[in-house]
Amino acid sequence: MFRHTLLLAYRSFLRFKSTFFINLIGLSTGLACSLFIYLWVSDELHVDKFHEKDERLFQAMERQQATDGILVSDKTAGLVAQALTQEMPEVEYAAAVLHYSGFPTSILSAQQENKIRATGQFASKDYFQVFSYKLIAGDEASVLRDKNAIVLSEKLARQLFKTTQNAVGKTLQWEMGSLKKQVIVSGVFKDIPVSSSEQFDFLLSFEAYKDTAPWVLNWENDGTHTYVVLKKGANVAQCNNKIANLINSKNGGAHRQLFLKPYSEKYLYGNYENGVQAGGRIVYVKLFSIIAIFILLIACINFMNLSTAKANQRIKEVGVKKVIGASRRTLMGQYLGESLLMAFISLSVAILLVVLLLPSFNQITGKHLLLPVDTTLIAAILGITLFTGLIAGSYPALYLSGFSPATVLKGRLPGSIGELFIRKGLVVFQFALSVILIVAVLVVYKQIAYIQTKNLGYDKDNIIHFLKEGRLYENQDAFLAAVKNIPGIVNASSVGRSIIGSHNTTSGLAWEGKNPDENTAFEMIRVNYDLIQTLGIQMVAGRAFSRSFATDEAKIIFNEAAIAAMGLKDPVGKNINLWGQDLEIVGVAKNFHFESLHENVKPLFFKLEPGQTHAIMVKIAAGKEKEVIPNLQNLYTEFNPGFTFDYQFLDQDYQALYTAEQRISALSRYFAGLAILISCLGLFGLAAFTAERRRKEIGVRKVLGASSLNIIYLLSGDFTKLVLAAILFTLPLSWLAARQWLNNFAYRIDLQWWYFIGAGLAALLIAWFTVGIQAAKAARINPVHSLKDE
User: Fold this and answer.
1) Nearest-CA neighbor of 503 among 534, 526, 475?
2) What are residue 526's DSSP bridge partners?
3) Whether residue 287 sits in one domain with residue 239
4) Which has the least CB within 10 A, 108, 131, 245, 284?
5) Is residue 630 one of the residues assigned to a domain?
């Protein structure tokens, strides 16, 4: 029976070659897109899920009341981990971590001439009890107990010692900014999996950092990340209730609420609005899952429409089979078998496409996806294919098997308003999905363009930055002076680190008239002289730091958002207190966007601390980059022998804030294009069948004087109505979807009416072009041939 079904399917494919190839292209493309999206979504859902204690692993978070609502931060006071371990019986382990993002790149050397740049973190002693990063040397309970300990990644150990064997006990020279010390290797861990949201090369003792930065012992600061493993059976909700006021009890009036969030959720659920979780990368996971379903449905619709459209060519086959005893169930099995066979043939082509295009897909997504042969993937592929085959073949099977033998043997296809309605409805649905995707591509493109061209409040163009390393810390002033003398350089200064991104935050400010219940968090940027001028940040009141004033290290500059949060009138000249130090407000800077446009501009202040800056900023005259950079490199080598000159452009750092959006934009363009292509394939096939069905009508009309344009208009009219219906149905849905996505940005484009009308017109033009090809072909047929009986 199975062999007979295969034979019938094979003959059907040979008989209807054009339909076979249209369906093959459509279904294989749809399945390939779905497989790509499945691999991407699966990878996203598995980020940070590899930790053995995942179900009990949490990150401590803080809610803070601000002037514009409740802010949520993933940073806590440095003492939180210790307090939770000592005071909360539900906590099994807790680790305090200072992330590498807040530090300059470290320099490690086993020998003086072998200097290697690496990124590291400071972590407390229970780090390897909390996280499941596998040690290949050393004991997880003790590798971070010693203040001089360092734990290396496998890759870094090989770079330093050419091997991972016998690395424990060896001495390294560690440098980070102005800090230098000898450290002893206490362990080596396997390289961090790509499925980890945290990537680093080494770990140092958190206790050692306390000695150099006592601010982490202050309950007012929140620059530390705290991770917790609860004991088995512990109730998270009850634990959150108990720890909510922990910081307030240690630091009266802080008004910072502590809570625990599952660690593996932070990657996908990282956005908060007014203290409530509100999306994150999970939005894109859901979006592309829906797109995969859309594309598969479009491909299935093609199959259904083409199968029902060609039914008049199979009616006698159905009639004969029914007369000789074939049941409707048998016929349904045959047509579903053809559909499933078509789906599995398409699957073979789809897998080939995925294998060939996966490297390009990885380049677009920035991932390292593979096509593993495992039960989960096989089950997913088979499930998707069976679903596709059954959905695509269900309606044609029901439709074809339902013909009456007495009627169909007369050669007439029974008319059905329902069949016509369903087919037209499917075309409307198909193009409705295409219009939604076109709108999505256009809105994402316009928002990305807006991000790239918006005035940020500072000049990011033609500015390069690089780390202060080695001798630059001792010779910073001389180096900056020499840099400014290079022809083509406009200005130069130094900053705590790159101006872009979240900086150190503190709520340890007091000012006259401060509300005791207020707990505003301020971003702090340590700067050198000329930094504000180098970046082109405008002052709206007062002045920038200047060497003309000997006491400027006792001054402070706020941005407009900070002054508004403090409620100060005429702030210049007034005093504030920072960590017990009185500082005079010497200027107010115009608000500028140091974070992405997802965020509102936060309160921020500049503090003049040249010795605490770690990055050099250089403004180059436009068009002079090729001349200036080699001279700057020579100067760097002269001042800092033994170190390579590695620089970045500031505008590239800004673009990196929107890596996710840019990748989503690229993927949406490709998937929208494929969805439209599949839709057009189906429309092309339907137009061909329509022209074939109306062949004699076209011949009669041409004999009676109809022109080719009349025939093209005739055949295109019905499809035009369907596409217009799809556009009218889709535009409100497209507007709602676009508005919802744009709500993720604090600064966004306004939705213009022409975005939606333009998308509709694009879909209509594509449909006209597709149908017009077949209509023009039919219009050119000699009426003599059209009127001949078959």
Assistant:
1) 526
2) 607
3) no
4) 245
5) yes
Point out the least confidently predicted range of 303-317, 379-393, 436-450, 740-754. Answer: 303-317
Distance CA 774, CA 172 (A): 74
Spell out the long-range contacts of 629-635 with Cβ–Cβ below 8 A and sequence spacing 24 or more. Answer: 629/464, 631/486, 631/487, 631/488, 632/464, 632/483, 632/486, 632/489, 635/479, 635/482, 635/483, 635/486
Query: What gap in Å lies between CA 715 and CA 684, rounded to an integer?
Result: 12
Q: Pick left, alpha or beta for residue 116 (phi over 0 → left; psi -120 to 50 → alpha; otherwise beta).
A: beta
- Compute the average pLDDT of residues 530-537: 93
Q: Same structural domain for residues 360 and 374?
A: yes
Dist. CA 439–CA 760, nearest whole Å: 9
Taking CB atoms within 8 Å and a gap of at least 24, the contacts of 694-698 are 694/778, 695/778, 695/781, 695/786, 696/786, 696/787, 698/778, 698/779, 698/781, 698/783, 698/786
114 lies in a domain?
yes
Q: 484 is in which domain, residue-wise?
A: 470-642
- Residues with Cβ within 8 Å of residue 193, at least 6 apart in sequence: 50
pLDDT digit string, tens, across residues 646-682:
888 888 888 877 887 788 888 888 888 888 888 777 7
Q: What would the two tokens of residue 345 be? A: 């043939």
The residues, ordered by sequence, that sit 6+ positions from 195 with a Cβ below 8 Å of its Cβ are: 43, 46, 47, 48, 49, 50
Sequence letter at residue 81: A
Q: Which pair of tokens denotes residue 730? A: 């889709």
Domain count, the chain: 4
Which residue is associated with the tokens 């936060």? 602
Q: For residue 252, with 0-12 CB atoms within 10 Å meaning exposed, 13-18 middle and 19 or more buried, which class applies?
A: exposed
Residues 6+ positions from 418 with CB-CB distance below 8 Å: none
Q: What distance separates the 2 farthest-apart alpha carbons in the chain?
A: 107
> From the CB of residue 220, how many other CB atoms can be counted at a distance below 10 Å?
17
Across 713-741, average pLDDT: 83
User: 585 near 534, Cβ under 8 Å?
Assistant: no
As to burial, measured by CB atoms within 10 angstroms (0-12 exposed, 13-18 middle, 19+ buried), residue 470 is: middle
First to last CA, the chain: 34
Q: Is there a contact between 735 and 783 (Cβ–Cβ < 8 Å)?
A: no
Does residue 464 lie in a domain region?
Answer: no
CA proximity to 542, closest of 584, 495, 488 = 584
Give buried/exposed letters for 20-45 (b at 16+ CB in 10 A, else e): bebbbbbbbbbbbbbbbbbbbbebbe
Burial class (CB in 10 A: 0-12, 13-18, 19+), 304: buried
The DSSP bridge pattern shows strands 179-189 and 276-277 to be: unpaired
